[in-house]
Design a protein that fits this description.
Blueprint lengths: L1 H7 L5 H6 L6 E5 L2 E5 L4 H20 L3 E4 L3 E2 L4 E2 L4 E4 L9 E2 L3 E8 L4 H14 L4 E6 L5 E7 L2 E8 L5 E3 L5 E3 L9
Length: 184
């Protein structure tokens, strides 16, 4: 079905997008267009796992859930797959999480998708009302924490290696950039 959708040159509906089923490719839907990226690097996945591990207990304590690479519906026809998502209570059997349940999205910037994470997705996440956006620079593990202010994000902190990000919302936890990168 994928080649048929890609070859026809017309917008893709949500129904068609979900009919693709589970795939090893990261396929996102943005306003009728499919956005396909290669699988992330091992370093990217290591950082995502370390962040998830660092935030897991704090999320539970706050009554929240942390997920890796899940479908998030920002609005009909706009479904990205963020690297990490922290949500309120959701139905774990549903194929998609609606933006209203999301309290924080984390994207780990890869060289192949830097503009998507820093511009396109940031704009879409803000438009959907996601309160917090954590952007992680993959090469240095520098953490950029943004908070929604109206319809756009305001950078609240930049945490570099050698420093500690003290999260107070939407959960209470510390993230240490030095602990996110894989060993040499």
């Amino acid at each position: 079905m994928m080649p048929a959708i890609l070859d026809r040159g017309t917008p893709v509906t949500e129904e068609e997008f979900f009919a693709l089923g589970e795939t090893s490719k990261r396929i996102e839907l943005f306003d009728g267009s499919l956005y396909v990226t290669p699988a992330p690097t091992p370093q990217h996945q290591h950082i995502a796992s370390e962040i998830k591990f660092a935030l897991r207990n704090a999320a539970r304590d706050a009554g929240l859930h942390i997920h890796e690479a899940v479908n998030v519906r920002l609005q009909p026809g706009r479904i990205p797959i963020p690297d990490l998502v922290i949500t309120r209570k959701i139905n774990f059997k549903e194929l998609v999480i609606d933006a209203e349940a999301v309290v924080l999205i984390c994207e780990i910037v890869s060289p192949s998708n830097a503009s998507a994470d820093k511009v396109l997705k940031m704009h879409y996440y803000a438009a959907a009302g996601i309160p917090w956006y954590l952007l992680v620079e993959q090469d240095s593990a520098t953490l950029h924490l943004y908070q929604l202010a109206g319809n756009h994000y305001v950078e609240r902190s930049v945490t570099r290696p050698g420093e500690v990000l003290h999260l107070a919302a939407p959960l209470t936890a510390d993230l240490v950039p030095d602990e996110l990168l894989p060993p040499d």
